[in-house]
Structures are given as structure tokens and as C-alpha cells.
Specification:
Shape: globular
CATH architecture: Alpha-Beta Complex
Strand content: 15-25%
Number of strands: 11
CATH topology: 2-enoyl-CoA Hydratase, Chain A, domain 1
Largest sheet: 6 strands, mixed
Helix content: 25-40%
Length: 233
């Protein structure tokens, strides 16, 4: 816990005005979620004490929780390296998102809807910039013991759906249509949200949003549903 608190305080001191705007993409075909360790801070000043956090980026798959656990096994035995997860995702598999959320909660990590800047990805000094957490990503985010959504980042919800594959020679791309989930699936989602300390009313709201669109939650809605805070650590 002391190590985690040091990470939180350092983020607070160094990155309160940390976000730049990244415009959302209309069609976001993301690869499977990957995990990596990124360094934040000005190396000329913090040097070996620069903050390191986990970046989770991409589409959540059924086995993403297992991929995350395998990633953690390769990290040095330093609890501060897994204290904070930056997440950027268009969504993905709902069951896989539940599993990833459970792992986040078991480890007690803080989840921030943000991503490391391109400079950091090249191994240079980095900073956090805005990100998106849409669709099933929100379930993984719920698993964070602490959750932050900085003002420029976006969290989007819609109704849970399944893809029903149908052959249509006139419309083959994609060869399926989105079918809303049944009430049992939505009840499971409400139960999961409640377990994570999130208001089930968020699921009720999402149910009313067609699967082909998103409702971008406002900061007041994020706070109202106990999904997270503004990200001011």
C-alpha cells in the first residue's frame, strides 16, 4: 500500500494538467488487447524514479484476463509496477471484460482511462493523453479499485448485443446483424456492476442505447453511477 500511495502522489504532482485531446475514430477496428509497461515523466528530472504504469490497449478478448496475468508474471517483483493501469479500448467480448475486471479488483489496481503518448511508446519520456473506453471496456474498467476518467477522455455505453450471422448476397460486409441481449444477460450485467460498487442504473441506461451507437457519459453521469471520478488524483 505505501508503494501504491507513492505512485498516486507522484501522478498527482506531475500530471494534473496532463491531457491532450485525441479525437475518437468513427470506425475503430482494433487488434486484441495487449499489455506493456510504460514510463511516465521527464527522465532528466526523475531519472530512476520515473513512474512506471501498465498500458492496456486494444480490443478485449475472451482470454484477455489470462494474457494480463501472463504479462504480470514477467514483471519484476515490485507491487508499484501493477498499481496503475491505463486503459484504451473500443470494447470487445463481454465475458472477457468481466474476467479482466475481476483480475483488476483482485489486484487492487487503479484504472485510468488514458494512454501513454507516442513519445513514450518509442521509449522516450512520456505523458498521459486522453483515451476512450467504449462498450465492453466499461465492464473491465469497473473492476478497478479506484477509477479515474479525466475530462478529455471518453466513456461510451450501449446495449449488450450478440452478432447473429446471416448470409445475404447483397450485404456481405459484415455478414451479420447485431441482436440485443436478453434480460438474463442484462441481469448478469447488473449483478456484476453492483458487485463492483457501480450503480445498476448504468446498465438500465445502456439498455436504451442501440448497439450501433454510443452514449458518451458526462462527468456528472460518471460520478452519479459511481463509475469513477474526474481523474484529479
Amino acid at each position: 500500500m505505501p508503494g501504491k500511495l507513492r505512485v498516486y502522489r507522484a501522478l498527482c504532482l506531475c500530471f494534473v494538467p496532463f491531457l491532450s485531446v485525441v479525437l475518437p475514430k468513427a470506425a475503430w477496428a482494433a487488434p486484441a488487447m495487449t499489455f506493456k509497461l510504460v514510463t511516465l515523466g521527464d527522465g532528466a528530472h526523475c531519472r530512476q524514479k520515473c513512474i512506471q504504469v501498465v498500458q492496456a490497449e486494444g480490443q478485449i478478448e475472451l482470454n484477455s484476463a489470462e494474457s494480463f496475468r501472463n504479462f504480470l508474471l514477467k514483471l519484476p517483483e515490485d507491487p508499484t509496477l501493477r498499481a496503475v493501469v491505463l486503459i484504451q479500448s473500443p470494447g470487445g467480448n463481454v465475458e472477457g471484460s468481466y474476467k479482466l475486471g475481476y483480475v483488476f479488483r483482485k489486484l487492487g489496481v487503479t484504472v485510468i482511462v488514458a494512454q501513454a503518448s507516442e513519445l513514450d511508446r518509442d521509449g522516450a519520456d512520456g505523458r498521459m493523453v486522453s483515451a476512450q473506453c467504449y462498450s465492453a471496456c466499461v465492464f473491465a474498467m469497473m473492476g478497478g479499485k479506484r477509477r479515474f476518467v479525466p475530462p478529455q477522455s471518453k466513456v461510451g455505453v450501449h446495449s449488450i448485443f450478440t452478432n447473429k450471422y446471416e448470409f445475404d448476397p447483397l450485404h456481405q460486409d459484415p455478414p451479420y446483424r447485431k441482436v440485443p441481449a436478453n434480460e438474463t444477460v442484462n441481469d448478469i450485467a447488473r449483478g456484476y456492476a453492483k458487485y463492483m460498487g457501480i450503480s445498476p442504473d448504468l446498465i438500465n441506461l445502456a439498455e436504451r442505447v442501440p448497439p450501433n451507437s454510443f452514449l458518451i457519459l458526462s462527468q456528472s453521469q460518471i460520478a452519479k453511477f459511481r463509475l469513477g471520478s474526474s481523474g484529479k488524483l
